Amino acid sequence: MSESIYQTYKPAGGSDGLFLKIQDGESVTLRIASEPAIFTQEFNNDGEVSVSTKFAWVAWNRGEKKAQIFNGGKSIYSQIADLVEEWGEPTDFDIKVKRTGQMLETRYSVTPLPKSDPLTKEEKAECDKIDLLKAVKGQWLKNFEANQEDKVYDVDDAPIDKDSLNDIFPE
Q1: What is the CA radius of gyration of the chain?
Q2: Burial group, residue 71, by CB count within 10 angstroms (0-12, 13-18, 19+)
Q3: pLDDT tens digits, the chain, 171 residues: what are they?
């Protein structure tokens, strides 16, 4: 008798701990171990579907001593990006992420930690085992940015007639 799909398939983000979950009032120390990925999540709120853009990284959770996927919205990405000018790439130093609040009142703070040990060869190997793009069904942010540049239209170079505008901006 073959194994049932229920015995072999385990959805990502379940109790396996692949995705980092930070509770209200909790803080975690992480080392970002990958470049950022970008993906979208759909939320159905009383029949109204909204789409949210999210960012994700493979990270080494210092407290749990394991590789996990750390993801968040624009505010987390922006806080990490703001550190780059003064601190360098986020793969070169640890960060402390603290969550406060619940539901729509949830806020995150990202703080760089000056005393950071580099990842060991074993920790890097554990991080490398995570297929981030598959887990979040996303793409690398650098590829997303390149694809967005391909979608820029210069209407000054196009003949201005209704048919050509419909090709550029379909209804």
Answers
A1: 20
A2: buried
A3: 566 666 565 555 444 689 999 999 999 999 999 999 999 988 887 888 888 899 999 999 999 999 999 999 999 999 999 999 999 999 999 999 999 998 888 899 999 999 999 999 999 999 999 999 999 999 999 888 766 654 444 444 444 444 444 444 444
Whether 113 and 15 have beta carbons less than 8 Å apart is answered as: no
**Which amino acid is located at 12 in the chain?**
A
Sign of CA dihedral 67, 19, 57, 87: negative
Neighbours of 10 (CB within 10 A): 11
Whether 37 contacts 141, CB under 8 Å: yes
